[in-house]
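ARCHIVE CARD
CATEGORY: sequence design from structure
SOURCE FIELD: tokenized fold
FIELD CONTENT:
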């Protein structure tokens, strides 16, 4: 049940995030659906490739595709004056998707018996892979590589689950809340990892 709920939360959150980015970039309706779907399922597809699960397994997720399509449709049909207020929530939905999918990806790899390193990689790719593809298609620098602390929270998620520090439903939901809050704090207060700039003139 925890797996299903986290998958639903992540799918809806990332589908909305992708749709909002597409509308910010003035994509047409086809582009909005494509970016929403890619954001929701891109990370899972990359994860499956790396941990040995057929990518075709994604096509068995009919319920999640329907959820993503419904979420994108609702956002697209939202009144324009209200949607302006929703745009500021793009980062919040992205934070929710990051937390939910990082946990889901880590659980997936852990249940397959993969080592800690693979659990961490699965958490990072599932939590941020869709967002990277979204940003590249939207012509933006990937958020995970240049903005506030992002993928570090997915690494932390992978560590917690890979070390078996959280495995019960209540613990996983608590971890979801903590990771979401940390991501929100990191973009609210502009927490950054160290950056070294090369001033080569």
């Amino acid at each position: 049940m925890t797996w299903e709920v986290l998958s639903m939360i992540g799918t809806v959150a990332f589908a909305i995030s992708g749709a909002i980015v597409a509308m910010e970039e003035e994509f047409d309706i086809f582009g909005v659906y494509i970016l929403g779907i890619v954001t929701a399922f891109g990370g899972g597809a990359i994860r499956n490739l790396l941990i040995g699960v057929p990518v075709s397994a994604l096509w068995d997720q009919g319920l999640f595709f329907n959820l993503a399509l419904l979420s994108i449709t609702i956002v697209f049909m939202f009144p324009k004056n209200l949607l302006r207020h929703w745009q500021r929530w793009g980062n919040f939905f992205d934070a929710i998707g990051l937390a939910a999918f990082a946990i889901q990806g880590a659980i997936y790899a852990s249940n397959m018996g993969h080592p800690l390193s693979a659990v961490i990689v699965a958490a990072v790719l599932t939590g941020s892979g869709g967002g990277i593809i979204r940003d590249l298609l939207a012509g933006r620098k990937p958020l995970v590589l240049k903005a506030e602390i992002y993928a570090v929270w997915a690494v932390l998620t992978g560590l917690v689950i890979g070390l078996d520090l959280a495995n019960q439903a209540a613990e996983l939901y608590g971890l979801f809340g903590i990771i979401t809050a940390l991501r929100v704090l990191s973009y609210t207060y502009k927490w950054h990892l160290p950056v070294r700039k090369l001033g080569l003139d």
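CARD ANNOTATION: The chain has nine helices and no strands. The CA atoms of residues 28 and 162 lie 41 Å apart.
SHELF: design records, drawer C
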